[in-house]
């Protein structure tokens, strides 16, 4: 017997771990990994709300599928930007990225 | 099974953000994503689970590992900030999590509203998440159809391919 609260707590742990990583990591790739954690917890929430609250609907299911597609596109573009930055300044730490700060 | 998946997901997601090496963080993220896929399978959403395994675990993690090795590699950088900044982030996320737990457990938002998973009240009538229904909804313009988002995502992926080539090309 799996209550809805258990899955929500799991996805909240994922979400806040992602927020912690987003606030504290230095490498931009690690920040992107944290963003993936947050997106993944949102997907899990979509699926579980669809499954538990509207078992005959399909909206949350499709939102999760489209969110996965958008996350893939986002990470591909972000990684292209990271590689470009690495070619320019030989590092991807956020401490070195100051050209576009203001 | 649920307990195993839950423990794996929670421990790996915490390990993703506290480990020093980025490539280890990517590996822990892989475990988180596979655990989430297992959770989808447990809910009966097999197509979503396979999409998760294929796109996330198979595609995105490989992309991340390539990017890590192309940039800084596995060398241990000072991945975490100074202790002061890290403690601020920790406090913020811990307070947010505690507020969430308080609201969720105190208010009993779903009391009497949902049957637990695995209870005898399974979805009645047609199963709208079987794969032929998914294809039907994905390409229908009628009620509950998702043709417009489908086309928008395809245009987005095309733009993403072009922009990725354009940004990361050698000058």
Q: Which labels suit this protein?
A:
heterodimer, A: 102 residues, mainly alpha, Helix Hairpins, 3 helices, elongated, B: 171 residues, Four Helix Bundle (Hemerythrin (Met), subunit A), 2 domains
Description:
The complex is a heterodimer of chains A (102) and B (171). Helix content of chain A is 76%, strand content 0%. With 102 residues, chain A is mainly α. In chain A, helix 1 runs antiparallel to helix 2 and helix 2 (28-53) packs antiparallel against helix 3. Chain A is elongated. The termini of chain A are far apart. The relative contact order of chain A is 0.13. Chain B has 2 domains: 1-95, Up-down Bundle (Four Helix Bundle (Hemerythrin (Met), subunit A)), CATH 1.20.120.1200; 130-171, no CATH class. Chain B is built from 6 helices and no strands. Chain B has helices at 2-18, 22-43, 46-70, 83-107, 131-138, 147-168. Chains A and B meet through helix 1, helix 2 and helix 3 of A and helix 1, helix 2, helix 3, helix 4 and helix 5 of B.
Q: Which sheet architecture does the biggest sheet of chain A show?
A: none
- Give the CATH topology of the largest domain in chain B: Four Helix Bundle (Hemerythrin (Met), subunit A)
Total tally of structural domains of chain A = 1
Estimated helix fraction of chain A: over 70%
The topology string of helices and strands of chain A comes to: HHH
Q: Assign the CATH architecture of the largest domain in chain B.
A: Up-down Bundle
> What amount of the residues of chain B lies in strands?
under 5%
Give the ordered list of helices and strands of chain B: HHHHHH
Rounded to an integer in angstroms, the radius of gyration calculated over CA atoms of chain A is: 17 Å
């Amino acid at each position: 017997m799996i209550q809805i609260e258990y899955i929500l707590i799991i996805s909240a742990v994922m979400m806040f771990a992602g927020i912690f990583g987003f606030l504290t990591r230095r490498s931009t790739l690690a920040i992107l990994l944290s963003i993936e954690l947050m997106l993944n917890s949102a997907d899990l929430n979509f699926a579980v709300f669809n499954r538990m609250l509207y078992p005959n609907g399909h909206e949350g299911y499709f939102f999760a599928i489209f969110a996965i597609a958008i996350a893939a596109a986002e990470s591909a573009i972000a990684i292209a930007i990271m590689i470009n930055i690495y070619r320019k300044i030989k590092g991807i730490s956020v401490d070195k990225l100051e050209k576009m700060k203001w | 099974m649920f307990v195993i998946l839950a423990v794996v997901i929670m421990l790996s997601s915490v390990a993703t953000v506290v480990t020093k090496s980025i490539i280890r963080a990517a590996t822990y993220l892989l475990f988180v994503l596979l655990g989430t896929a297992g959770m989808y399978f447990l809910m009966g959403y097999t197509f979503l689970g396979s999409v998760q395994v294929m796109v996330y675990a198979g595609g995105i993690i490989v992309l991340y590992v390539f990017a890590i090795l192309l940039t800084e590699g596995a060398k241990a950088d000072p991945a975490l900030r100074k202790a002061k900044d890290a403690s601020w982030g920790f406090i913020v996320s811990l307070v947010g999590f505690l507020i969430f737990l308080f609201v969720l457990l105190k208010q009993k938002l779903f009391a009497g509203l949902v049957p637990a998973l695995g209870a005898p009240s399974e979805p009645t009538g047609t199963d709208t998440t079987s794969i032929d229904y998914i294809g039907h909804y994905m390409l229908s313009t009628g009620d509950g159809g998702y043709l417009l988002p489908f086309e928008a995502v395809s245009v987005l992926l095309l733009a993403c391919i072009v922009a990725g080539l354009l940004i990361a090309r050698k000058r």
